[in-house]
Automatic annotation (TrEMBL):
Signal peptide: none annotated. SMART domains: 53EXOc, HhH2. This is 5'-3' exonuclease. InterPro entries: 5-3_exonucl_a-hlix_arch_N, 5-3_exonuclease, 5-3_exonuclease_C_sf, DNA_polI_H3TH, FEN, HhH2, PIN-like_dom_sf. Keywords: DNA-binding, Exonuclease, Hydrolase, Nuclease.
Amino acid sequence: MAHRPPILLIDAPSLYFRAYFGVPESAARATDGSPVNAVRGFLDMLTTLVRTRRPDRMVCALDHDWRPDWRVALLPSYKAHRVAAEGGEEVPDTLGPQVPVILDVLAAIGITAVGATGYEADDVLGTLSVTQPAPAEVVSGDRDLFQLVDDARGVRLLYVGRGVAKLEDCDDAAVRARYGVPADRYADFAALRGDPSDGLPGVPGVGEKTAARLVDRYGGVAGILAALDDPGSGFAPGLRARLDAARDYLAVAPTVVRVALDVPLSELPTALPQAPADPDRLLELAERWNLAGSCRRLVDALATRD
C-alpha cells in the first residue's frame, strides 16, 4: 500500500496572529481601505504548506474558547494578562474583523475549520492528532504543542517559530535535543519552567536546565512531589524549599498545560479539494477584499499538488 501523506492540522490562531504582525497593514488593504494583512498572510502560509508538504487532508483548528473556565479554575493566572478591559481576549483592533474573512475564504475553498466550546485550538489539534488516521503534521508556533509529538503514531510538529518558510520538522529526538525531555513529558517540564506568555509562573529559580534534570530524574511533576516527602531524596536544600513552596501550583499546572485529547468533535470532512467548493463565492470574496493573488496562488497549489 502506498504511503499516505500526513494530514495537516493547522493552528489557525497561531498562523493568523503571525501573519498579522508579519505583513504590514499598508501592504494589504481591501478596496474600501480595510486592512487584510492577516488574511493575505494566512492564505500565503497555507499555499506554502500545500506546496511543500503536499497533503491530501487538512483541518484548521480554531479558538472557540481561548481561556477555558476549567483551566482558569485550576490556575487563575492562566492568560489573565491577556484579558481585555471589556473582557475577552486582547486582540489588535484591526485583526478581529479579519478572522471572519479568513473563515469565509476557507469555506469557499472547501477547507474545514473547526473549534469546540470550552476548548482552545490546541485541544482541537490534540484530539485530531489522536483520532484522525495517521500520520499527522501539526503546524504551529506554540511551544506547548511539542507535547503532541508521537513517533509511534507518526505525529510530528512543524514548528513555525521562525516562519512557515523556515519551519522546523520535529520528531521526539528533536524535542529531546531542544529541551532535554521527551515529548510526552513536555507538559511537566513546561509547568516547572513556567511560561509568562500564558500566565504560568513556574517554580521560582527553576529554569529549563533544572526543569529538564528534574523531569529526567523523577519522571515528572507527580514523581517530584512524591520525592519531596522523602527526606533522603537528594534535593539540594534551596531547591527543595522552592519546590515545596510551589506544591499547590505544581498540583494543578501540568493539567493546565496538558493538551486535551478528548474534545467532542463531530465527524469532519478532511479531504483537500483540487478545485474550490464554491468558486463564485470565492471570486466574490477575492474581489471584495482584494485577495485575488493570494486566492489564486492557493487554488493553484491545491490543483497541482499531486
